[in-house]
Amino acid sequence: MDIELFWFHGCPNHEAAEVLLREVLGTHHLDVPITRIAVEDEATGNEMCFPGSPTIRIDGRDVEPGWEPCEDCTPRCRLYMTSVGLRGLPEREWIEQAIDALQPS
């Protein structure tokens, strides 16, 4: 399992995203490294198809259900439309579903 956390230094939510991700991994009894990828400029953002910070990808797939690649990939904060409105973190359930989808039945 390949887990990536894309972020940039101006984001106030990337550390909380990593804590959330580690909690979910712990709940699933997974000791998987998290690759942190700093996206500090537009060129890197475009190369990584960066929708904003924090972005979590598991095996190359964004954890947000239905996410579509962005056209504007400049470093910025990402907002997620969650069940309780706009938030700076993805829903825990999305991360769990992304992990569960890769687990053998």
Structural summary, described in words:
Helix 1 (14-27) crosses helix 3 (92-100). 30% of the residues are buried. The radius of gyration is 13 Å and the shape is globular. Helix content is 29%, strand content 21%. The two termini are 15 Å apart. The protein has helices spanning 14-27, 42-48, 92-100; strands spanning 3-7, 34-38, 55-58, 61-62, 80-82, 85-87. The strands form 2 sheets. Strands 2-1-3-4 form a 4-stranded mixed beta sheet, with helices on one face. A two-stranded antiparallel sheet has the order 5-6. By secondary structure, the chain is an alpha+beta fold. The longest helix is centred in the first third of the chain and has 14 residues, at 14-27. The protein has one domain. It is built from 3 helices and 6 strands. Strand 3 (55-58) and strand 4 (61-62) form a beta hairpin.
In a nutshell, what does this entry contain?
By secondary structure, the protein is of the alpha+beta class.
Labels describing this entry:
single chain, 105 residues, alpha+beta, four-stranded mixed β-sheet, two-stranded antiparallel sheet, 3 helices, 29% helix, 21% strand, globular
Question: Unreliable runs, pLDDT <50, ≥5 residues?
Answer: none
Q: What portion of the residues fall into strands of 2 or more residues? A: 15-25%
Work out the oligomeric state of the chains in this entry: single chain
Task: Tally the helices.
Answer: 3
> How many domain modules?
1
From the alpha carbons, calculate the radius of gyration and give it in angstroms.
13 Å
What is the string of SSEs from the N terminus onward? EHEHEEEEH
Distance separating the two termini: 15 Å
Counting helices, strands and paired strands, the structural category is alpha+beta
* Largest sheet, spatial ordering of strands: 2-1-3-4
Helix amount: 25-40%
Shape: globular
Largest sheet: 4 strands, mixed
Number of strands: 6
Mean pLDDT score? 93
